[in-house]
Amino acid sequence: MSRTPPASAPSLPSNSSALAAAVDAAHQAGALMKQHLRRAKQVNESHQHDIKLELDVRCQKLITRVLARAFPAIPVLGEEGIDAASEQAVARWVVDPIDGTVNFAYGIPHAAVSIALQVRTADGFRSEVGVVYDPFMDDLWTAIRGKPARLNGRITRVSTRPRLDESIVSLGFAKSQDSLKAAQADFLELTHRVRKIRIMGSAALALTYVACGRFDAYVEAGVRLWDIAAGGLIVECAGGSFVTQALPGEHRYGLIASNGLIHDQIPHARASGAKSKPVGPKGGSKTPSRSRS
Ligand code: IPD
Question: Which atom in ligand 1 lies closest to the alpha carbon of residue 179?
Fold first, then answer.
């Protein structure tokens, strides 16, 4: 006789079926974002360095519905709402429905949907599947742990630039005063050592730009888990390094992502002691993250 597993202990989805559901959800939310880019948007909350839109909430609900149709027992930990079950679950979705909300709110077409499937491990959670979708460029990055990352279905890799002074480094300017100060220090420190600094306003896209070699590194002093859970895995699967440091506050991290070759040349990495290790063959991750993607 076959037994149905209890709701609290769902069997894990196969990574390929999880990827298919996440891609479906990302495409649907991306279509909604694209439809609304140039329209007036309802602002639910406005702070000095942050905006929350009604559309963020609508996109997260849509994503949750699509994922729940495929995997009803897997909870969602998202920027716009956290299912309490996600802290204890064996698996959870980590969702940023619109990463780059401020860009999107101002009509700047640089924002993305980010969805990761994380699985519980002995010391926390680890991303197994990652999807980042930029609906404005129709760029879809996907990764399954242990396999190569893909951009629009084709294998993608980090850059091979070995020198910081030839590199494009992206910085994130987050929301809190302490992370803004740290970002200013990074800016002053790095700006004369790199070819160009870019500050584009979407952590998920900064990570995927590293994954496909458009950027050589991305540094941010205070992101949240939903900004980086999918993109971090995509960087690792593209052969790069993704080093995070847990910060005080819930699901908060500092991070340095890079092609791996320039990690140790980033002054911030030296200062914080964040160590990157050589990346294994075939894009599999050997990077020790203090908290994993
Ligand atoms: C933000 C963006 C931004 C980064 C912030 C994030 P949100 O995410 O990724 O680039 O600098 O740290 O919070 O709020 O637009 O989803």
Answer: 12
179 close to ligand 1 (CB < 6 Angstrom): no
CA-to-CA distance for 230 and 111, rounded, in angstroms? 14
Beta-ladder partners of 140: 133
Q: Enter the tokens of residue 73.
A: 């027992």
pLDDT tens, position by position, 66-110: 999 999 999 999 999 999 999 999 999 999 999 999 999 999 999
Quick one: which atom of ligand 1 is closest to the CA of 102?
15
> Residues 231, 208: contact at Cβ < 8 Å?
yes
Q: Are 170 and 264 in contact (CB under 8 A)?
A: no
Distance from Cα 228 to the centre of ligand 1, integer Å: 10
Domains and CATH numbers, the chain: 15-155 (3.30.540.10), 164-283 (3.40.190.80)
Please report where in the chains the tokens 């790199």 appear, as a residue.
194
Q: What is the pTM (predicted TM-score) of this model? A: 0.91
Read off φ and ψ for residue 245, nearest 5 degrees.
Answer: -135, 120
Ligand 1: centre distance to CA 28 (Å): 21
Query: How do residues 42-59 score in pLDDT, each as one tens digit?
Result: 888 888 878 889 999 999
Residue nearest to ligand 1 atom 16, measured at CA: 99
Buried b (16+ CB within 10 A) or exposed e, 209-243: bbbbbbbbbbbbbbbbbbbbbbbbbbbbbbbbbbb
Q: Is the CB of 96 under 6 A from ligand 1?
A: yes
CB 113 within 8 A of CB 59: yes
Residue type, 35: Q
Cα–ligand 1 centroid distance for 3 (angstroms): 43
